[in-house]
């Protein structure tokens, strides 16, 4: 059989004669975490219009496709759900703010803002990214929060504080592996334990932290108990 005379040859000739082509139009841009590159990159959001082609020329519309996200670096296309993943810069900020909020909540629950707890909280917050944080600053923030909300120190986690914890932790939790979520809870536990055993109010706040981080209700007491057994 001569080359090009079989079934594959006929299919190849048909593909050259008839086909489809997609024309892309940019409808937005920004920065995203590219799963292909493994880092933050610029992107274009594209909307496509498909057309039948005859001899390579577009002849009939075939409807719309997309939208898709195109990486400016690797040129690969991804579904728009890729934009739900925070950039590295945004993720770092979310993590930093989450640790700061947990530290303030635990200090407020502790009731006295004792020096050991303040120092432990300041070290924890600095490690998260607030390089200039001091115990005095945290103490002032806790007192201002209490004055602004009328909250009484050492009371159980009220609705307002629970909302603040969920606002800081809910968007972060889906992007953390289980060890990462547990690490944030344990950082709060170490602050609570710095000046003595957990108080009921501290346990209540830490239980709210665990729930916001989607840690199982049965796992939170186990983690808190393990932290209490670990020498500081």
Q: What's this entry about, in short?
A:
By secondary structure, the protein is α+β, with helices and mostly antiparallel strands. 49% of the residues lie in helices and 22% in strands.
Tell me what the structure shows.
- By secondary structure, the protein is an alpha+beta fold.
- It folds into 2 domains: 20-84, no CATH class; 88-229, Orthogonal Bundle (TerB-like).
- It is 49% helix and 22% strand.
- It has 8 helices and 4 strands.
- It has helices at 7-17, 88-110, 115-128, 135-149, 159-169, 178-193, 200-212, 219-229; strands at 18-34, 39-54, 57-71, 77-78.
- The protein has a 4-stranded antiparallel sheet with strand order 1-2-3-4.
- Strand 2 (39-54) and strand 3 form a beta hairpin.
- Helix 2 (88-110) crosses helix 4 (135-149), helix 2 (88-110) packs parallel to helix 6 and helix 3 (115-128) crosses helix 4 (135-149).
- The radius of gyration is 27 Å and the shape is elongated.
- The N and C termini lie far apart (82 Å).
- The mean pLDDT is 84.
- It comes from Streptomyces caeruleatus.
- Residues 135-222 form the Co-chaperone DjlA N-terminal domain.
- This is Co-chaperone DjlA N-terminal domain-containing protein.
């Amino acid at each position: 059989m001569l080359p090009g005379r079989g079934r594959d040859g006929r299919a190849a000739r048909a593909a050259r004669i008839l086909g489809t082509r997609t024309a892309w139009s940019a409808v937005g841009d920004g920065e995203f975490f590219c799963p292909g590159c493994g880092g933050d990159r610029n992107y274009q959001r594209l909307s496509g219009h498909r057309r039948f082609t005859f001899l390579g020329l577009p002849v009939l519309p075939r409807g719309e496709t997309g939208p898709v996200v195109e990486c400016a670096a690797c040129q690969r296309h991804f579904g728009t759900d890729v934009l739900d993943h925070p950039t590295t810069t945004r993720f770092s900020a979310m993590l930093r703010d989450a640790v700061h909020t947990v530290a303030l909540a635990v200090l407020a629950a502790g009731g006295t803002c004792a020096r050991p707890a303040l120092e432990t909280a300041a070290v924890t917050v600095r490690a998260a990214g607030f390089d200039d944080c001091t115990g005095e600053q945290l103490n002032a923030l806790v007192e201002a929060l209490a004055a602004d909300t009328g909250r009484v120190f050492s009371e159980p986690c009220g609705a307002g504080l629970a909302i603040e914890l969920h606002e800081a932790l809910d968007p972060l939790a889906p992007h953390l592996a289980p060890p990462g979520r547990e690490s944030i809870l344990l950082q709060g536990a170490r602050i609570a334990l710095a000046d003595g055993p957990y108080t009921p109010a501290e346990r209540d706040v830490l239980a709210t932290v665990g729930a916001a981080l989607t840690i199982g209700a049965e796992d939170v007491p186990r983690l808190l108990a393990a932290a209490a057994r670990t020498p500081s």
